[in-house]
Amino acid sequence: MKKRCILPILCLPFLCAACKSVPTPSSSEPPQAIEEELQEPTTLPPPEHKPVPLPEPPPEPPVDPDIWDVSDVDISAIDQSRKLISFTFDDAPARTIENILAVFAAFNENNPDCPASATLFCNGCLFDSSSVSTLHAACALGFELGNHTYAHFDLTTLSEPTLQAEIDKTDALLEQADGKPRHLFRAPYGRLNDLVRATVQTPILDWTIDTLDWTGVTADEIYQTVWSQKFSGAIVLMHDGHDQTVDALKRLLPDLKAEGYQVVSISKMAKAHGVTMRRGNVYIRARKKEIGN
After folding, report:
1. How far apart are CA 231 and CA 221, in angstroms?
2. How many domains does the chain have?
């Protein structure tokens, strides 16, 4: 029995000593946790933002030098609901060029909703001191200039150097009026061979409707030829230098408009109709491309 009573008594001093060794927190000292809350938070630097590179644009398709470029041809004045027909005048600039331009200018002034234009195929040998300014006025009216060689030879009888000179000399003269180094081409008499087609650097234009105005036919005959054979995409052959041609124009322009047509240059008709013209190829029309064809 004595042994059982001794153990509790001996442990009591040790318990008291242990209690004295634990420090009692003072009310004047805040706990460590509170001190940490009062400290200013650490500011981290913002993340570095690197610009995201934009994807490279797809490369533009290479330009085909054999395709006639119509990117700068203005067709904003073309009424897409109308049928298009192209008037062309060979052997310009001749004595009726100013009358031809006057007929078109008067028509356009009275018909701003359906302005008319044409293509002049010029011979370099017909140029004089006033030709460049006259053709510049034609371009301002919406006309297009074409190359009809310098001296109007039968090209199938010429050597390659002479043929090239016939084309280049006229292109240089036309460039003074429209600023373009090359022009649509029409062979004198429509005569062509492999050498001509290989030498010409642009599309070659023939025609659909030949008015034969150079033979002395009347203005009424010219009118009836165009009227009876017209269709959308047709190319009409006329000539500068014939008064009856001018008289026929005075009737044709308003009557064609009334019939739902608009008279335009070859390049305008080709662009509006979606026709791609290629170097050395011969074209007699420029029909509108239909969806699916």
Report:
1. 18
2. 1
